[in-house]
Amino acid sequence: MAGKQPLNIVKMKKMKQDGVPISMLTAYDYPSARLAEEADIDMILVGDSLGNVVLGYDSTIPVTLDDMVYHTRSVARGAEHTFIVADMPFMTYHGSVDESLKGVRRLMQEGHAHAVKLEGGAEIADTVRRIVQAGVPVLGHIGLTPQSVNQIGGYRVQGKDQADAERLMRDAKALEEAGAFAVVLELVTEESAAEITQALSIPTIGIGAGRYCDGQVLVYHDILKYASPYREKRFVKTYADIGTAVREGIAQYVREVKERAFPAEEHIFTTAQKTAAAGPVYGSGKEKVPGS
Hints:
alpha/beta, 2 domains, 8 strands, elongated, disordered C terminus, metal-binding, pantothenate biosynthesis, cytoplasm, 3-methyl-2-oxobutanoate hydroxymethyltransferase, EC 2.1.2.11
């Protein structure tokens, strides 16, 4: 959006201090990023959830660094004035620091991200610290961490007992101390998320973590019901049902082709038409006809 001033990590911390909620949405390609920016979203996350909603996998684990670079670059072209965070995919930041930094470099230089997101708490704090020291903003992610779903026993709400709540608090503080500019809390009890939010000086971004986080993030395809079949989620609110609209639009197109109702007279060209009278071929008329 022309004239829009993108957020930065200093402004986000000020938003927390002032009690101004931060809006965040996932996007995975040029048109979805452009639409999100036009809707004045604060931040875009190029999540490895693209494995589920774009690439057709049943988890985020098969998503590669090449996948993330490709989709982040597409999003960056569509949202030139929005702060963009890219996920580090499965097992790209658990080996040597040098290998982790190579992945970060690719997301920043080739993908044009402004920051990276890593899943995990205290166990990855040293890696977070080294990435931050290299000059790259890091968004933490604790609670339900989809890349570890096989280890934690499925998609389960976190922080339901005192011991688990204390673990989450330790992880959040470890990420803050390591230099993370914010922390995503996914599928965390509202009570635990509220305590973490109050304890940290950096923003918390909730997804299924209740009402008291400093911001919220949801998946593009969830808020728009852009899937088939769509699986309802308790923590998601549907703002538009474009999945049904897309299906119905395509079905109508198929019917009209079968019935020879499309193309109609207004969609065709004849030798008798004069170019000036025929009207634009594409959009504003400034575009070239393919092959011309």
